[in-house]
Amino acid sequence: MAHIVVLGAGLGGTIMAYELREALGREHRISVVNKGTRFSFVPSNPWVAVGWRDRNAIEVDLEPVFAKHHINFYPQGAERLHPKDKRIQLMDGQSLDYDYLVIATGPELAFDEIPGFGPGGLTQSVCHIDHALGAREAFDRLVANPGPVIIGAVQGASCFGPAYEFAFILDKALRDAKVRDRVPMTFVTSEPYIGHLGLDGVGDTKGLLESEMRQRHIRFITNARVDKFQDGTAFVSEIADDGSVKGGHELAFTYAMMLPAFRGVAAVRDIEGLTNPRGFILADKHQRNPAFPDIFSIGVCVAIPPVGKTPVPVGVPKTGFMIESMVTASTQNIAALIAGKDATAVPSWNAVCLADFGDGGVAFIAQPQIPPRNVNWSSSGLWVHAAKVGFEKYFLHKVRSGQSEPFYEKLALQMLGIDKLKAVQHEQG
Ligand code: FAD
Q1: Average pLDDT in the 340-352 region?
Q2: 300-332 pLDDT, tens per residue?
Q3: Distance, CA of 29 to CA of 321 (rounded, Å)
């Protein structure tokens, strides 16, 4: 009997545990270690931040679901991974041994890299449900006392979709509250151009997103490095192609929300052979760590190099769709290894994103991530908002029921009607 431990029960880790249970049957032990007992659907946080969702609508109590599927649950969290001993030290001092480990710990949010940044400082965040609830209170204060707003993503960020989403959702919420005319909005981003998204653009995301910005009267600054937030002002440098400072901006704000850079979480950081210098887990094309081949990793914690050099550093986004493909490949590989076979499954890593704007949205598919691509498609319309609501409803249903099928991929493909992508996936087996 093998013991497989999944570390982290977010968007990736939860479905990882379900897929492992489905693939391996009851003769193997599956355990999940998480910080807390609740699953939180991160993609809905921008809606929470403007009052369109509350906590209960996007969270699931994992204890009864895991119990039903015979998955052991350790919600006390991991203090430190000891890969040479194949052991995890838990926060309460207990130790957990494993035969195979899947790391799914998501990001640590690096707010501390910029003075005054983050919910502990002067700006809001939508990266965690607690932050989004705080941002909701700040939104109410903004409606009561309108003033300038900054939205965007700082240097080293990789998650650009939610920054655009939140700019347009906030624009809609402020229009609904009839105060948008008193809120000048600026989008500040480390991307070299609007719509780069950490992927050097997908289809016409540059044109689509710039056009949305113009239509909604949102100014933008690209190649931006945020130096500090102080006394209601963001100090921003614009960086030239040669790395020199081209100009500076002092932007006064009443409300600011910018996506931070990510790094790996403390429990798995600085382990030689396991992590890169930012603490992301090194993985080969089978999601397997080369130094510790009994360790797989999925989701935001995986090290993926940037698509190219940019004046200000930007990372590659890891979206739900891509994460599902990592989960399926890791499950197949662990099942193969347990059966004494080779790990040969390769995830598709397709970048697929639905960016909701509240009253519309932009969708894109990039395959492969680095251009030139076989599939390089983007589109916009009200249907994207409907599709994003469908994604939320479906994913939460899947987590509540313990369902393992990677159905979202199929649903999304049907909605997008992209036969070409299906063909590419089929070719990859
Ligand atoms: P997470 O969901 O963050 O889960 C990590 C888990 O690990 C957490 O439960 C955490 O408690 C746990 N953990 C951390 N440290 C420890 C420890 N020491 N011990 C035990 N457990 C630990 N993608 C999309 O496809 N569509 C979207 O619309 C979308 N919107 C997004 C919106 C926002 C605001 C953000 C930030 C991201 C969005 N993403 C979206 C990207 C991505 O899908 C999400 O970030 C997703 O939550 C990542 O899943 P994950 O499992 O890697 O990490």
Answers
A1: 91
A2: 999 998 888 999 999 999 988 889 999 999 999
A3: 27
Q: Can you tell me which atom of ligand 1 is nearest the CA of 162?
A: 32
Handedness of CA 140, 143, 148, 152 (dihedral sign): positive
Contact 49, 93 (CB under 8 A): no
Residue 322 Cα: closest atom of ligand 1: 25
Q: What is the mean pLDDT of residues 358-377?
A: 85
d(CA 334, CA 77): 23
Give 358: exposed, middle or buried? Use CB within 10 Å, 0-12, 13-18, 19+. buried
Ligand 1 is surrounded, with C-beta below 6 A, by: 7-13, 33-35, 42-43, 45, 77-78, 104-106, 126-127, 159, 162, 265, 267, 299-301, 319-321, 323
User: Which CATH superfamily hosts domain 111-261?
Assistant: FAD/NAD(P)-binding domain (3.50.50.60)
Tens digit of pLDDT for each residue in 225-256? 999 999 999 999 999 999 999 999 999 999 99
Confidence of residue 165 (pLDDT cuts 50, 70, 90): very high
How far is it, in rounded angstroms, from Cα 75 to Cα 8? 9
The DSSP string of 307-324 is SS--SS-------HHHHH
Greatest Cα-to-Cα distance within the chain, rounded to the nearest angstrom: 65
Q: Is residue 277 reached through a cis peptide bond, with omega within 30 degrees of 0 on the bond before it? A: no
